[in-house]
Amino acid sequence: MKTPEELKETVKEKYSEIANQSKEENAVSCCGVGTSCGVDYTIFSEDYTKLKGYNEDADLSLGCGIPTEFAQIKEGDTVLDLGSGAGNDCFIARELTGEKGKVLGLDFTEEMVNKARINADKLGFNNVEFRKGDIEQMPIGGDSIDVVVSNCVLNLVPDKTKAFSETFRVLKADGHFSMSDVVLKGELPEGLKNDAEMYAGCVSGAIQKDTYLKIIKEVGFENISVQKEKAVILPDEILKNYLSDAELLSYKNEEFGVFSITVFGQKPACAPDCCC
Ligand SMILES: C[S@@+](CC[C@H](N)C(=O)[O-])C[C@H]1O[C@@H](n2cnc3c(N)ncnc32)[C@H](O)[C@@H]1O
């Protein structure tokens, strides 16, 4: 069993390799890392090509939703993207904040940060910044961000309570987040969980949806809502190896399985110990 630090090193190694591959290579390789084991890592990802601000070089098909669609970003906002990769969601957010706003991308994989910076330079943006750092300990001042977005990242972070506590700390009072992520519902047979990881990636670090929402509440967020939910459809050939006919039916009825969700949460306007 790996320690949290070892897990993070594995994640960094994987995304260093992905940063150096094309979108096409990621689509046909194992978890995007160049060996061939039939994984379609892009199974979760949405079509970004029609979105305003879309930048092809930043799109590595690594997301599992479109958080900016739900994030209510306004002109002039300061937006933070957690696990920004090559900058895909940052450039969409920049379209929404305009020149008066600011977009900050945070990622702990050096190669991703470098790639994102090259993309921003090519676009000539001076209000999009990419910073290297860990989501569990963000190098970002408190009460400084209007909107936090994130796309398919927190499932990779070992301490999700720390990740959401840090999100709470950096947000301004009344600020909010909209994050897309992978979660589980119900107990998946261990073999099926392993095969789902092999098939789609992003599953091994995912936690139960209820636990995920409970953490967000315990950290202090309010107005929590699931803005979008989509089941990840695994092929019958995989499912039949692990599920009885009755279980297969309940899987198809989405009573358990792997889901991509987009979640919203708001930092209260007033601190609990303060009057305002
Ligand atoms: C699945 S990719 C998603 C990238 C990007 N959000 C997108 O949709 O294209 C996950 C990204 O999160 C970063 N990441 C994972 N854990 C992190 C952590 N603890 N702190 C900072 N970045 C992290 C990885 O380096 C990687 O670039």
Word description of this protein:
The protein has 276 residues and is an alpha/beta fold. It has one domain (4-266): Rossmann fold (3-Layer(aba) Sandwich), CATH 3.40.50.150. The chain contains nine helices and seven strands. The chain has helices at 4-19, 23-27, 88-97, 110-123, 160-170, 190-200, 209-219, 236-239, 245-252; strands at residues 78-82, 102-107, 128-132, 145-151, 171-185, 222-231, 257-266. A seven-stranded mixed beta sheet has the order 3-2-1-4-5-7-6, sandwiched between helices. Helix 1 crosses helix 4 (110-123) and helix 5 runs parallel beside helix 7 (209-219). It is globular. The relative contact order is 0.14. Mean pLDDT is 89; it is low at 28-39. Bound molecules: S-adenosylmethionine.
Write the layout of secondary structure elements.
Blueprint lengths: L3 H16 L3 H5 L50 E5 L5 H10 L4 E6 L2 H14 L4 E5 L12 E7 L8 H11 E15 L4 H11 L8 H11 L2 E10 L4 H4 L5 H8 L4 E10 L10
Parallel strand pairs: 1-2, 1-4, 2-3, 4-5
Antiparallel strand pairs: 5-7, 6-7
Helix pairs in contact: 1-4, 5-7
This protein binds S-adenosylmethionine.
